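Memo to structure team: turn this sequence into structure tokens by end of day. - J.P.
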Amino acid sequence: MNRRDAFAGERSSESPLQEFMPSTTPTVGQKTLRRTWRAARLLLAGYLTLILVAMWFENRLIFYPFAYPAGNWQPVDLPVEDAWFKTPDGTQLHGWYLPHPNAQATVLFCHGNAGNVTHRAIAMAMLHQQAKVSVLVFDYRGFGRSQGKPNGENILADARAARRWLAEREKVAERDIVILGESIGGAVAVDLAARDGARALILESTFDSLPEVAAYHYPWLPVRWAMRTRLDSAALIGQYHGPVFQAHGAVDTLVPLANARRLFDAAQQPKQFLLLGNHNHNNLMPAEYYDALAAFIEKAVKP
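Reply from structure team:
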């Protein structure tokens, strides 16, 4: 082998340019950056999946219906009548009707997002005895003996069907009915009163809008824009021009007092707010509430 060949062999086996080429082995910093980016992508994918799942199951997260036969359907000393009626789309609904022989008002009771009419038996009795009113408590579709499945839109239609039945049964105009709503039923009551009118509006432990309450409980989810069910009572209640009575617990852990206050601030006069000291969301309403409510109704129905 001549010197030229030997030199060529050395050059091909180890080029002098090789020492200036970057290494293909990742550094510790690059490895850390890659692991961080991979973890971030997994977290983001999981977060987006969680949002999609929450949106898909939104109605199940909002409504907790107790279907028949759950509950006590033979209440003692409460002579309720079964009320059966249909919505415009043909869904059959059920309610309990308790007439008063000398009623000073007729009340439509829109209950909350759980249970059924049987769980409002005590409230019916107190309204009947203390406030001296005829009252209809009805079940939204999917609750109790009512057909169908509930969502934020059809429960409003259910309430209108219930009010129509009650007006015919009591032989009064729909606008002359007092509408009472508890919790999510408060949003239903506001919608009816604001759009169609009411003799008076009574709100128990309710909220300004459903996404605001959800944002309180799930601040790490974008519920304010993701929720389809809005039930924005604060945006509607100003359209109602009648007497408003609102009661809320000072220690309500489900609907914060601040949410209730925002709804009350948006309402027109005349209005009254009753703060219940140690009352939490699912507690039975105390005697002071029914005393104040009876006085409010008496004043509201005076000609």
